[in-house]
Amino acid sequence: MGKHIGVIGLGVMGQNLTLNIESRGYPAAGFDLDTDRSAAAKTKFEGKNITVADSIEIFVGLLESPKIILMMVPSGNPVDSVIHDLMPHLSSGDILIDGGNSHFNDTGRRCGELSAKGILYIGTGVSGGEEGALLGPSIMPGGNKDAWPHVESIFKAIAAKVDDGTPCCEWIGDGGAGHFVKMVHNGIEYGDMQMVCEAYFLMKNILGLTPAEMHTVFSDWNAGELESYLIEITGNIMAKTDPETGNPMIDVILDTAGQKGTGKWTSQASLDLGVPAQTIAEAVFARAISAIKEERAHASKILSGPAISFDGGRDEFIEMIRKALYASKICSYAQGFQLMRAASEEYGWDLHYGSIAMLWRAGCIIRAQFLGRIKDAYDRDHGLSNILLDPYFITVIEETQDSWRSVIATAVNAGIPVPAFSSALAYYDSYRAERLPANLLQAQRDYFGAHTYERIDRDRGSFFHTEWL
Q1: What is the pLDDT of residues 202-214, one digit of tens each?
Q2: Which candidate among 126, 248, 312, 373 keeps its CA 20 to 30 Å from the CA of 114?
Q3: Closest-CA residue to 86 (of 165, 34, 8)
Q4: Annotated catalytic, 161?
């Protein structure tokens, strides 16, 4: 009897997804060009209904028809290389799935090219890390919808489930839609992580809280409206002790952050589509400036700033930080959903934003109670242009913005960088402003380049030029 699905790429994610698939009753085959990884996978899969093949020919031959192959390989050229190697062994109607973090434009291209050859192609976002891959990730598939009936049962079986048993998996749309939504998920994740880091930094530097005290704070926050995976693990991180030194683990980790590119892609997409997503971009830039550690260390000995002082109440300021974090989070998500809305219109994807919010309720890195509020907002108004205009979020911002502004002002006066908090507030203030100083910008553009401008006393779409000299 043939295997129901094959997995190419047996790194940790590929191995764990294969184990997840097999545990749901789907016999699987695996293959990896790296013989050491193949050997490790054979050991890990011992006793399971999984066969690791020694060649791509044997691998494909193990599969039932139509053949379903999930690629878990790095984005870019490796995906094209695997597709090239597989093509001589595939027939019309076979299904290829890219489960890596590919760029949505690459996925759209591959979908079109393979459809012309009769191969059904899916590009699917998979979020949840190693644990999610094994126990149930959030899955965001898009591409050739003719493939969906063949893989829907597998995907929904292995996906994370919310409390009522609903799987965090649903068809997203054509072409690169699935990978675009996963990309935005990762961009929002960048913003979430940076905002949590800023909350930590404020408590550490202004209030002088110890990691043990912050463990209690984050644990308390996780019992309320900020309940989320990232707040939960941050509390756990604060409680961890370094076995070598006995110091808090957080205090022995170097302050330089890595990135794999999806946050940058989100920022680039926002620029391409003309959508303001400054909080996500600031989170990317925060990682970039963290990476120049030696340069910062040198600058810290030369450049001056204000002394840190604070004479307010500790508990009151902690609550203000919590409110600032929640308000900033709302604005970051507003930017992400605006970006998906613009992409849906640009590429004809017909995305369903409430459903997307529910895909992120479990399994993925940004899973949070808060996402249910976004689903409710789109249930109330399917055409909602921005979640900031929903009654619930209007109320939250009204209740939190005084604290939000005060926290940012305190940080600025203390010389503590809070780029995500600040950019989120700038986004909110810009979005609620009937007039912005762009009228002067247009005058400048017309002055030096004759780029023209619109007038407040004429219909939109009519353009004028002034001879300024």
Answers
A1: 999 999 999 999 9
A2: 126
A3: 8
A4: no
**Measured distance CA(370)–CA(385) in Å, rounded:** 18
**Does residue 125 contact residue 110 with C-beta atoms inside 8 Å?**
no
Q: How far apart, in whole angstroms, are the C-alpha atoms of residue 277 and residue 379?
A: 24
Give the bridge partners for 70, in sequence order.
7, 97
Q: Which of 170, 189, 198, 282 is catalytic?
A: 189
First to last CA, the chain: 83
Q: How confident is the model at residue 422 (pLDDT cuts 50, 70, 90)?
A: very high
The CA-atom distances, in angstroms, between 347 and each of 180, 262, 343, 451 are: 11, 19, 6, 28
**338 and 274 in contact (C-beta within 8 Å)?**
no
Residue 237 CA to residue 233 CA, distance in Å, equals: 6
* Each residue's pLDDT tens digit, 440-463: 999 999 999 999 999 999 999 999
SS3 16: helix
Is 24 exposed, middle or buried (CB count within 10 Å of its CB: 0-12, 13-18, 19+)? middle
pLDDT in tens, 362-396: 888 888 888 999 999 999 999 999 999 999 999 99
In the annotation, is 189 catalytic?
yes
Buried b or exposed e, range 145-157, using 16+ CB within 10 angstroms: eebbebbeebbbb
Structure token digits, residue 325: 């974090």
Q: Which helix (H) or strand (E) holds 407?
A: helix 391-414
* Angle, vertex CA 212, rays to CA 208 and CA 215, nearest 5: 105
Asked if 411 contacts 202 with a C-beta cutoff of 8 angstroms, the reply is yes
Tell me how far apart the alpha carbons of residues 228 and 265 are, in angstroms, rounded to a whole number: 24
What is the mean predicted confidence (pLDDT) over 142-155? 97
Among 3, 67, 170, 182, the active-site one is: 182
Cα 367 to Cα 360: distance, rounded to the nearest angstrom: 5
Which of the four pLDDT bands, split at 50, 70 and 90, describes residue 1?
A: low
Cα 444–chain centre separation: 37
Q: Is the pLDDT of residue 85 over 80?
A: yes
Q: What is the dihedral of CA 456, 457, 460, 464, to 10 degrees?
A: -80
